[in-house]
């Protein structure tokens, strides 16, 4: 892992000397695990970059433009823990999602809390995965067991969402944590200031297993031993370390105590009395104090094994023998306490569920399960229903989760026939394939409610079933699910101009949450899903037809997967006619048909786009492989869909009817014009008859003419066919299609390295087509507003083609440049304004190109290769999918909410390694969660240290410098900072209250009365102060007294408006009796605002680098529009304030003059100048309009300030006019050159 700058500073000779003096034990004690994300792993970060590159220092977690925002589509990875409440709506479910967990509110299954990533233990490589978790709502703590992949070896305690303490339970890689139990609460003595007091704590039991050895060499199944693995000496002493390597015990119990202060290891128990016992699962029966039941297998006999252990004494009390009677080699995989005392359910790996009585060691009965293929599935979880409705029906339901994804519901009440003979237990219902690949991981009934919560091992789904039907079958009440395979193609539902939508939208145009929806297509799961970037409860899967489950069952299929469409390879959407018919068209892998979908209905709704003669039925001959679809697009009107094929032919369809509307190029059958319909009385029949007679009269000459015409037409047809063959993608796959905004031109690219422009109506190629590309094209993205097309090539570069001028205008990442991709480009897209191009590549990077300057302005690096990307219609977010990851990663563009200077910045030498974004909690009116969300927007949950962030901010805040002297530079500030200065009056008018403030009600009796304020809120006067009238003072005296800090000034009393008290009068007498020879104390300088203070300070200092008021410009850039207005307004209050305000106006004019001359931050400085003149225009215009008699009474200083003000206002006017005129001339010259060059093409 690349070290930061702070780490390099510390690598001095003195520190090396100190490090050499440390012993090995001291070094081991210093190894404290710290929370990291999966992307910050040392080995992964080294392998994630292309050859010859390294992570740019100071950019860990964030790039120049983007920072992690959130992850979509990750719901569950299997383990969960239910925190019951009075009812199911208030209950919480703590669900593991990889290296994090989130709390779901059971009323809508929406996340309310998301934890930070679990810390990696010493020696662990790769991302961490949570295997077991327990949560306690009274202490607000959660305890998770985690480790690399499926080998948990560490336990971490969380205080809400923050990891507090981590303990390495098993240092050796032979051991793994197979289960985690909640044993109850205990009292624990506190340390420190509260020594002697006790606090509540949770007692936990971690079950460790050494795994079953292989019969050949005895190497453990779980992991390989590593002699160099690090160990935590604080967790266990030398005797415990010796016990871990002791092969006489293959099972251990580690007792842990978790409290708000931390996590500690209480003791370890070795199962030495049963040395061949390999634990797998355990439970703590409620009525068994200090005892746990552990299930597993005996590796010598390969049969089930069940033991009872007293955790207080550390002894094995009993070894159950009732299971030894079963002559089946199996393992105990699941245990669950039944509502009946002394009765537990035992699930095995051979599909059997045993109900045993633990008190008498007796097997009550056995339930057997078989899958459709005849194999016995593994029992993964068991749950018992305890609600009152089951008792009313006289049933005792038990749910059994299986490894094949099916949930079986049994009635444990023995049924009898008419003769009273027992018929065994009844299978009430089965939920077939409730969870996809990997089967059911865990299920649990809600206490005293007919609700069953279940999760799958790899299904990425959590489901809540409700059992309220008379036949006791369950129906889905709520569910949240995502892709079961990594998504490979994503697009915003209604994209903006950057994705070819043709609509430039932003928040000011009324964009609502309906535009924040991402269409995602998975590879192996064959589904099309839509994810909301605002609320996860709006996520859903598009339906591919009604009754697929029943149809699959009728056809004898295992599940509906075989009836689903092949994986989606590309899609196109258009919202123009979304209310009338389908607005989405998809093509599929190795499939010739295109399908129409409706985003309004959320289903496949519409005709199948196919040619006449193509068979839909799978029982007939399918279309040839050359007709398989490779690309698709929709016209801007939403009426036509164009589908490219492997043979190079482009088919055109009507979206509403599904009928074909021709091909590109036109087919031979469509080239012939339809014959003219002959009607009686048509004059054309008369002309044809006359022509026939003339041919008969001069038959010999007509024969020669017809022969010549035939030869001439054949030559023309041959030339046309040759031109058409050159201008088409004959024999090569069409990799990209686009249609312009007016349905005039069709753009297509293919594997033959050609770009062809077609006439949309006549289906004929453009007269200048084809255009030869430098390499074969793989992707195409078109912007309808500017008519620019970006093309990804096989040589890892991208070019920009201007369809209006028919020329290549840009080439990105070409040659041996540092800013070129080193692997094929997987996807590309434009920003909404068309100024930025985003490209993703298999070299695990995403590049952001600035189109006007043809430069790479940002370079993002990832741990896995991005497979697809899309840009939000507002341009604020970038969404990416990655190889092997189920979630959709979203990145926020920091230039929308803070200053980012990309222009003129140095070229990037290495990509910024990005941290994986975390899912966001979706709860309203929660201050803590909003703070956490904002923190994650700035950086990821496990971002680098504060010093790194400060260094990055210092680098990002650098002002863009002009490459040549005299050039104009922009401020890089958000547009709202300076644009709103022109409309502040409008904003104030809109924010003005519609109603006058109402009179407050009468105050209660317990509120104290304040002086001069009545109980009803009206102001009152003190009768003593109304007896004597105060002399009327002039405006200047009142103004001076208001702004004076002198204690001798009179007339305004105290701040509270009360008359002077006796102490005030005494203080005044003491001042009057002071030494009369001392002059009157000078007034203390009181600045009206921070801007006035900065102007005065900068004026008294020497200029640095020719800039004297640079600090003023930097200060104004940090203020908002309202603060800028208040600061400018406080400089001078009008003509009556010229004595104190005129010098500040002169300093402000000097500052603005210097800012205009520097030509930096051009747009912001002009906005400041506009607001300054708008506020003080009357004062500046009236400076030189005073009559001569009024100037005689003024001081020389004020007259000098008047002259300086007139002088600087004149200079400021000339400078602003000259700079604006120079900018206009440059723009006019540029426009003339562009017009001239466009005419030359």
UniProtKB/TrEMBL annotation:
Residue spans of the WD repeats: 818-859
Gene3D superfamilies in the record: YVTN repeat-like/Quinoprotein amine dehydrogenase
Domain of life of the organism encoding this protein: Eukaryota
Region of interest (Disordered), residue spans: 1-60, 215-250, 936-960, 1018-1071
Compositional bias (Basic residues): 1-17
Matching InterPro entries: Quinoprotein_ADH-like_sf, WD40/YVTN_repeat-like_dom_sf, WD40_repeat_CS, WD40_repeat_dom_sf, WD40_rpt, WDR36-Utp21_N, WDR36/Utp21_C
Keywords attached to this entry: Repeat, WD repeat
This protein's name: Small-subunit processome Utp21 domain-containing protein
Provenance organism: Cylindrotheca closterium
Lineage, top ranks: Eukaryota, Sar, Stramenopiles, Ochrophyta, Bacillariophyta
């Amino acid at each position: 892992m690349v070290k930061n700058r702070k780490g390099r500073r510390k690598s001095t000779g003195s520190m090396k000397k100190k490090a050499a003096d440390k012993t090995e034990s001291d070094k081991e004690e210093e190894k404290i695990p710290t929370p990291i994300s999966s992307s910050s792993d040392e080995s992964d970060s080294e392998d994630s970059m292309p050859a010859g590159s390294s992570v740019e220092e100071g950019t860990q977690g964030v790039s120049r433009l983007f920072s992690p925002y959130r992850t979509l589509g990750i719901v569950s990875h299997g383990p969960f823990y239910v925190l019951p409440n009075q009812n199911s709506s208030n209950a919480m479910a703590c669900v593991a999602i990889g290296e994090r967990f989130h709390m779901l509110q059971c009323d809508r299954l929406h996340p309310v809390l998301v934890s930070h990533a679990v810390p990696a233990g010493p020696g662990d490589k790769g991302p961490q995965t949570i295997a077991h978790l327990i949560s306690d709502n009274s202490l607000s703590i959660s305890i998770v067991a985690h480790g690399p992949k499926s080998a948990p070896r560490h336990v971490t305690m969380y205080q809400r969402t923050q990891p507090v303490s981590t303990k390495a339970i098993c240092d050796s890689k032979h051991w793994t944590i197979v289960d985690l139990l909640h044993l109850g609460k205990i009292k624990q003595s506190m340390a420190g200031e509260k020594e002697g007091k006790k606090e509540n704590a949770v007692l936990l039991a971690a079950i460790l297993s050494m795994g079953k050895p292989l019969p050949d060499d005895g190497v453990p199944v779980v992991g390989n031993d590593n002699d160099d693995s690090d160990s935590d000496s604080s967790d266990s002493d030398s005797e415990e370390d010796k016990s871990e390597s002791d092969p006489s015990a293959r099972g251990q119990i580690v007792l842990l105590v978790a409290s708000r202060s931390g996590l500690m290891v209480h003791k370890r128990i070795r199962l030495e009395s049963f040395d061949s016992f390999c634990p797998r699962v355990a439970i703590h029966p409620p009525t068994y104090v200090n005892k746990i039941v552990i299930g597993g297998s005996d590796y010598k006999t390969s049969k089930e094994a069940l033991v009872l252990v007293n955790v207080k004494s550390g002894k094995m009390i009993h070894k159950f023998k009732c299971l030894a009677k079963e002559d089946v080699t199996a393992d105990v995989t699941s245990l669950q306490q039944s509502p009946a005392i002394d009765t537990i359910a035992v699930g095995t790996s051979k599909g059997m569920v045993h109900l045993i009585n633990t008190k008498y060691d007796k097997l009550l009965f056995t339930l057997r399960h078989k899958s459709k293929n005849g194999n016995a599935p593994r029992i993964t979880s068991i749950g018992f229903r305890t609600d009152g409705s089951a008792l009313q029906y006289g049933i005792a339901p038990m749910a059994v989760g299986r490894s094949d994804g099916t949930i079986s519901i049994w009635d444990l009440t023995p049924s009898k026939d008419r003769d009273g003979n027992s018929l065994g237990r009844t299978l009430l219902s089965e939920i077939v394939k409730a969870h996809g690949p990997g089967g059911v991981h865990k299920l649990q009934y809600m206490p005293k409610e007919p609700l069953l919560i279940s999760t799958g091992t790899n299904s990425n789904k959590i489901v809540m079933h409700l059992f309220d039907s008379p036949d006791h079958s369950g129906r889905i009440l709520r569910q949240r699910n995502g892709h079961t395979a990594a998504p490979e193609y994503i697009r915003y539902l209604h994209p903006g101009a950057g994705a070819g939508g043709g609509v430039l939208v932003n928040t000011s145009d009324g964009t609502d949450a309906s535009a924040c929806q991402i269409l995602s297509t998975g590879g192996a799961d064959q589904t099309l899903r839509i994810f909301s970037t605002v609320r996860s409860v709006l996520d859903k899967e598009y339906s591919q037809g009604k009754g697929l489950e029943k149809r699959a069952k009728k056809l004898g299929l295992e599940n509906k997967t075989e009836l689903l469409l092949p994986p989606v390879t590309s899609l196109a959407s258009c919202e123009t006619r979304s209310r009338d018919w389908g607005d989405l068209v998809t093509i599929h892998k190795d499939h010739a048909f295109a399908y129409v979908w409706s985003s309004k209905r959320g289903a496949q709704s519409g005709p199948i786009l196919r040619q006449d003669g193509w068979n839909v039925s799978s029982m007939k001959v399918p279309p040839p492989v050359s007709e398989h679809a490779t690309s698709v697009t929709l016209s801007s009107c939403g009426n036509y869909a164009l589908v490219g094929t492997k043979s190079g032919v482009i088919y055109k369809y009507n979206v509403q009817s599904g009928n074909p509307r021709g091909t590109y190029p036109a087919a031979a059958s469509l080239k012939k014009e339809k014959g003219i319909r002959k009607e009686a009385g048509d004059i054309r029949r008369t002309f044809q008859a006359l022509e026939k007679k003339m041919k008969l009269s001069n038959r010999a000459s007509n024969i020669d003419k017809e022969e010549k015409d035939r030869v001439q037409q054949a030559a023309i047809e041959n030339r046309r066919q040759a031109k058409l063959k050159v201008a088409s993608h004959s024999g090569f796959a069409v990799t990209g299609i686009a249609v312009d905004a007016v349905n005039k031109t069709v753009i297509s690219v293919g594997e033959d390295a050609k770009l062809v422009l077609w006439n949309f109506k006549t289906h004929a190629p453009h007269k200048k087509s084809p255009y030869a590309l430098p390499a074969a094209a793989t992707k195409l993205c078109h912007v309808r507003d500017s008519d620019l097309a970006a093309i990804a090539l096989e040589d890892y570069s991208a070019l920009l083609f201007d369809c209006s001028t028919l020329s290549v205008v840009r080439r990105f990442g070409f040659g041996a440049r540092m800013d070129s991709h080193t692997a094929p480009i997987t996807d590309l897209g434009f920003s909404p304004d068309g100024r930025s191009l985003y490209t993703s590549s298999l070299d695990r990077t995403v590049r952001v190109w600035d189109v006007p300057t043809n430069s790479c302005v940002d370079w993002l690096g990832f741990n896995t290769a991005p497979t697809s990307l899309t840009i939000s219609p507002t341009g604020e977010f970038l969404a990416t999918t990655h190889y092997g990851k189920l979630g959709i990663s979203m990145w926020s563009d920091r230039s929308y909410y803070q200053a980012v200077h990309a222009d003129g910045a140095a070229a990037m030498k290495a990509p910024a390694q990005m941290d994986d974004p975390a899912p966001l909690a979706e709860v309203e009116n929660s201050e803590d969660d909003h703070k956490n969300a904002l923190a994650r927007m700035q950086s990821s949950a496990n971002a680098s240290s504060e010093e790194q962030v400060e260094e990055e901010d210092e680098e990002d805040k650098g002002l863009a410098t002009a490459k040549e002297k005299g050039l104009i530079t922009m401020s890089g500030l958000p547009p709202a900072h300076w644009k709103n200065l022109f409309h502040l009056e409008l904003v104030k008018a809109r924010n003005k209250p519609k109603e006058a403030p109402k009179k407050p009600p009468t105050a209660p009796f317990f509120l104290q009365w304040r002086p001069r304020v009545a109980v009803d809120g009206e102001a009152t006067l003190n009768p003593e102060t109304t007896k004597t009238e105060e002399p009327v003072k002039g405006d200047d005296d009142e103004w001076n007294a208001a702004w004076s800090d002198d204690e001798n000034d009179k007339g305004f009393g105290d701040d509270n408006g009360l008359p002077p008290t006796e102490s005030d009068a005494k203080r005044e007498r003491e001042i009057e009796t002071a030494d009369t020879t001392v002059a009157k104390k000078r007034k203390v300088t009181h600045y009206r605002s921070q801007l006035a203070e900065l102007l005065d300070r900068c004026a008294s200092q020497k200029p640095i680098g020719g800039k004297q008021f640079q600090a003023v410009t930097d200060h104004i850039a940090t203020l908002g529009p309202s603060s800028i207005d208040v600061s400018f307004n406080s400089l001078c209050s009008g003509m009556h304030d010229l004595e104190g305000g005129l010098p500040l106006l002169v300093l402000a004019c000097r500052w603005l003059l210097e800012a205009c001359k520097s030509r930096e931050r051009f747009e912001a400085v002009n906005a400041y100048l506009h607001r300054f003149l708008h506020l003080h225009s009357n004062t500046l215009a009236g400076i030189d309009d005073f009559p001569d008699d009024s100037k005689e009474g003024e001081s020389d200083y004020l007259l000098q300030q008047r002259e300086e003000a007139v002088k600087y206002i004149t200079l400021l006017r000339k400078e602003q006019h000259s700079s604006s005129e120079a900018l206009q001339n440059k723009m006019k010259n540029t426009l003339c050159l562009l017009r001239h060059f466009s005419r030359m093409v």
